[in-house]
Amino acid sequence: MLELFSDFTLRNVAMGAALLGISSGVLGSFALLREQSLLGDTLSHAALPGVCLGFLIAGGRNLLPILLGALVTGALAALFVLLLTRRSRLKNDAALGIALSLFFAVGTVLLTYIGNQNNAGQAGLDAFLFGQAASILPADVAVMAVITALSLALVLGFWKEFKLLSFDPGFAGSLGLPTLLLDIIMTVMIALAIVIGLQLVGVVLMAAMVIAPAAAARQWTRRLGAMVTLAAVFGALSGVVGAVISALATGLATGPVIVLCASVFVIVSLLFAPERGLLWAALRSVRQRRELHSHQVLIDLYQLADAHGNPQYPSEAGMMNLYYGTDARRALRKLASKGYLVKTEHMREEGPHWVLTDAGYERARELLGEMGLAA
Amino acid sequence: MTAALQSWLLSPDVGIVLVGAFVGVASSLVGTFLVLRKSSMLSDAISHAILLGIVLVYLITGNQYSPFFLVGSALAGVATVALSELLARSRRVKSDAAIGLVYPLLFAVAVVLINVYARDVHIDAHAVLLGEIGFVWLDTTVVGGLELPSSLLNIGIITLVNLLFIVVFYKELKLTSFDPALAAALGFAPGVLYYALLGLTSLTAVTAFDAVGAVLLVAFVIIPPSTAYLLTDKLWRMLLYGAGVGVGSSLLGYPLALALDVSIGGMMACVAGLFLVVAFLVSPRYGLIAQEIRRHQQQRKNARRMLLVHLYSHENDRESLEENAVTAMQTHLRWSPERAREVLMDSLEEQLVEKHRPDDRLTLTSKGRILAQEVLEPWRRGG
Known about the structure:
The structure holds 2 protein chains of 2 kinds.
Chain A: H1 7-33, H2 37-58, H3 63-87, H4 92-117, H5 119-130, H6 138-157, H7 159-167, H8 169-174, H9 179-201, H10 206-218, H11 224-248, H12 254-272, H13 278-307, E1 315-316, H14 317-324, H15 328-337, E2 341-344, E3 353-356, H16 358-370
Antiparallel strand pairs in A: 1-3, 2-3
Helix pairs in contact in A: 1-6, 1-9, 1-10, 1-11, 2-3, 2-4, 2-5, 2-9, 2-10, 3-4, 3-9, 4-5, 5-9, 6-9, 9-10, 10-11, 10-12, 11-12, 13-15, 13-16
Chain B: H1 2-10, H2 12-36, H3 41-61, H4 68-89, H5 95-116, H6 125-130, E1 140-143, E2 146-149, H7 150-168, H8 170-178, H9 180-185, H10 190-229, H11 235-260, H12 264-282, H13 288-313, H14 320-323, H15 326-331, H16 337-349, E3 353-356, E4 361-364, H17 366-376
Antiparallel strand pairs in B: 1-2, 3-4
Helix pairs in contact in B: 2-7, 2-10, 2-11, 3-4, 3-5, 3-10, 4-5, 4-10, 7-10, 10-11, 10-12, 11-12, 13-16, 13-17
């Protein structure tokens, strides 16, 4: 298998995939924060007619005109969405769906048209549907590098403005920032991110690459700089791993494999990120429930003792278990380990009993006080 | 008679156009409610996700024509939406990002499975996206002594099911689409109805999948109802117009695709888009042109009222000779000569002002004076 791919090709693929991951992570972060994820979906599907037009105009599979075409039709689709939402009664979701499906339909028509003109052309363009790592040339990597550098420069140049626009567009407008212009630049940036990934990931799944690394990075941090950096790292890693896997195995489309890698990052981040991780949240809620339960047991023991006028009143463990269900045993043991209870053998034939210690008595009074109930 | 009908049904042209038309009708019936509920993009998620259902059922049963396809893909479609909503409810990502994370994952898994088990799964990635409506007439079924394309039978049944669902739950669907809060308060269980709708969307998607593929289906689900939405305010009319656009797209798209020798499904979707653009431009009430005309008429009306008020306020003062003259419209109201002429012609035609020779003096008619008073002192109206 490995002999088929010289190191040179693999290095090409890896470099291209890294560039794709970095740019989609960085640019996608802003799309995610501005809740424009589905715009990315529309723009990536709308790249198809542009790919075909670029191919037709250049007369061959030449990456630069193809990507320029994709950028132009992506921008047109964004304009179309804007026109429909501003000047008709259609809502944003319908406008996005209309632009997505209509541009893609035009793309399929052009694709079949090219296929009928010459078959080699269509075979080359099919790579743009699901991505094909093997088809990438050194010249293509150079084109991707230039576009990535351009878009990163754009992000650095407008960092402050983009940050403000992402978190508080109303305030940005009131400061006199040209929000419409910045909006347009940011939309073009999403289109740029998509265009860079077209050859490796394809039009159908490129939208996921714009969202996934950014969504994964968002779980780990609250700071924009850290999020963008992490998204770039996640994007680059999933790009390289996915592209190399698909380049080494025959017949695996590259795009889906890269998206699967990115999804792994998303799932791991959603579950295990500190603070926001869903696993930690679940553990926290279990712990809280247990603590509440043990508080309740302690207070009940206190009130039993109080009702009997005897701080050393021994409560029967069997009765407690019956009252709370079996869970009471765990709570009782925990309270005992904290030194709030001691086990006594009050009446041998009736099994163990529990007695409040002085510390337990005080703790129960404290808890009742916290709840605003006079102890 | 039967023989004629039989040969008509089996001709490729008729089969293709009929399947396209039924896909259009079935999709736009459910699409209408997705558009009204502002969840159009869910159709995109569903139509991609059902591929996983199709592939999994295929790998498990090994059968190309199994009723499990319907169940599997309906489940896949509904599961996509449920997963996205679950993710959004965990508040770790926004709802739009949740959709954009879940369905590409399921779709990617499906494509990888197709690639890995390429020999066992007779689905090629190209057909998944574009469909093969051109071959629907090849595979036929006999029903009641009549042989007809299987796709036509399947999509026909789904169309009927969708129609039945809408007829039976019309009132409930209407209420949940326009006022979900009230529907919930009245105990209509909008959630159940919503998921039933999504289930039907998935069923429609899987049935239409062979014909138009995953992405073009979105065009059939969203574009016809959106076109209808631009034309009417009535729900039943929206359903009717949407179905009409679906049928029209198939009827027009097929010959166009043949003439240009391009993708049939793609062309049908393009024609649907064309219908939408036309409605966007010329819809009598909501169209761009109607909006412009209304705005222009409003501007002219406002200008007329301004002239009347100007004349009225100078009617009895010393400068009335100078102020109430044709030339003052340009010098005092700062209108361009064309604008001034237009407003004057309008006002004369409606007998609001009178022009007197030889000095082009303007006076109000009694009708014009009443109108000017109404503008200045609206509280006196009718008093």
